Amino acid sequence: MSWLYLRLRLAIKSAAITGPVSMFFNDPSASENKTPETLGNALFDNEKVEDWMGLYGNNVASIFFVTTAFLGLLSKASETRGAWSAGVINISSMSGQLRISENKVGAKAANIQLTKMFATELALKKIPVRINAIAPGVYPSEMTGEQGIHTLPGKEASEIAQGLRPIPFDRSGK
């Protein structure tokens, strides 16, 4: 196996990694939220730099390095098969557009922004490679606190989505 193939597999597998969640951050009655000082101390003590670096490495740096590693091959594919036929699809999350779970949200927002930057820069340079991101909505997971439930009712899914988009099927994804 080539090193590019191994790196691509690693990037795909690590795209789904989530970081730790500050359980008290969105709970107004939590003792950690009493003063700015207690909140700051609790957030600082609840996180590790290594966790943040891992999260940004998996969700942001991997996009940069995998995209740039394959850019020449992607461009050649478009030359062979027709303009703009080669593309990159980055996996983000609707979390990148929300204001919760500061570490994952920040990483997913950076993921979306890097995707936009690549799409714009390549288009301006007339490099015929499409760069897009998909941002799946609400699914039962450790992040939504609903791992054991097969689907979330529309009301719960909409609450998690914070009104970002209406939930078309009145339920979460499966």
UniProtKB/TrEMBL annotation:
Keywords: Membrane, NADP, Oxidoreductase, Transmembrane, Transmembrane helix. Gene3D superfamilies: NAD(P)-binding Rossmann-like Domain. It comes from the Eukaryota. InterPro entries: NAD(P)-bd_dom_sf, SDR_fam, Sec_Metab_Biosynth_SDR. SUPFAM superfamilies: NAD(P)-binding Rossmann-fold domains. Pfam families: adh_short. The chain crosses the membrane at residues 55-74. One of its GO terms (molecular function) is oxidoreductase activity. Belongs to the short-chain dehydrogenases/reductases (SDR) family. This is Short chain dehydrogenase domain-containing protein. It comes from Thanatephorus cucumeris (strain AG1-IA) (Rice sheath blight fungus). The lineage of its organism: Eukaryota, Fungi, Dikarya, Basidiomycota, Agaricomycotina.
